[in-house]
Amino acid sequence: MRSLCLAIATGGKAGENDYYRLRAELKDNPSIADIFPFYVKTVPTLSAFRAVVFADYRTYEERRKRINQEFFPVIQRLEHSDRASSPNTSPQDQTNDSEESMTSDPSNQIDQRRVFVVHGRNTSVRDAMFDFLRAVGLDPMQWSTAVSLTGKSSPYIGEVLEAGFARCKAAVVILTGDDEVRLRKDLWKDYDEEYEHELTPQARPNVIFEAGYAFGRFPDRTILIEVGRTRPFSDVLGRHVVRFSGGIDQRHELIQRLKTSGCLVDDSAPDWMRSGNFSASMGTDSGTRSRGSPRNNAEAELVFSNLSERNLSIFWVNFDGIEEFHSKIAPNQSYTQPTFVGHIYCVRNSLGMVVKEVVAQEKPLDVWVFED
Fold first, then answer.
1. Distances, alpha carbon 256 to alpha carbons 76, 165, 214, in Å
2. For residues 40 and 132, what is the distance between their CA atoms, to the nearest angstrom?
3. Which DSSP letter does residue 246 get?
4. Number of structural domains, the chain?
5. Which helix (H) or strand (E) holds 224?
6. Whole-prediction pTM
7. Do residues 194 and 338 both lie within one domain?
8. Is 309 in the same domain as 235?
9. Whole-number Cα distances in Å, 367 to 43, 65, 138, 314, 351
10. I want to staple 135 with a disulfide (CB 3.0 to 4.6 A). Which of 48, 74, 275, 370 is the partner?
11. Do 172 and 133 lie in a common domain?
């Protein structure tokens, strides 16, 4: 059965009838019922198996690795059962084999290279995050895979998360602004934040719920990542969320969070610096641009004056086209930014909307923001 699955996962051919027969034989074997490979257990046909494994893993190497991991405990147990039934096997040999099997059986342990990924509708961001995680030697698990692990057709969200954490060392919850929401006008208060009265991006409600469950149940193993700008939710505001747009510093911060969560991260190769195209996946107003600031040693100066009624934030567009926060300016205040000729700066209001862009010139430049 393992050879058949490997053939299909790597572009080969195999018989549908063989898959059906072998699957039935293995499912009827009570000695391996608790460790039966979840792909084979939940997928009744070979064509469906191919669709699932191709969706979860992109390369032949990743598919081979996953299939071998799933079949390893089954083969170990079946081989041990054969040795135990042999008349030439001593009781001491059986004991040693049993202890060795238990310590080497990956199904009895959390895989420190597996990461459970929760995401919303933005599949481009999901794909970019999967590429990044694989570049640091990790094996991301999708929600659909965790659903299969429960062994139920319609599990509760808590059951799916528990199943994911039973196999994965950490969970990465990606918050993207998939919805646009605001507070109803009849509920407005004078002390509301500005974003309460404007349509602002927000993560999908199910993602927020799953983030709260995961963070409450496994706080030391849950990493919240905000990609792009999203409406804040107060219980996690600030301290636990990684603000992520694909910059090198942000990638490094995420790697450190993954290591702190206990993941076996391999960042020895430089691939993690460029794997995952977040620039293309976050849209035009996400903080990532098609061009960045040029490298230039000619000094310049920008003086930003906030003449609006809202707080403003100043971002520098770095060499890779990614915005980096520099300063916040209160209404009727000014801020002087030393910089270099040709460097690009962006002014955003408290809703995250771009209200001004400017390029530094040879002479000092006054940048006035009257309204947004």
1. 35, 19, 19
2. 28
3. S
4. 3
5. strand 222-227
6. 0.53
7. no
8. no
9. 61, 56, 45, 11, 20
10. 275
11. yes
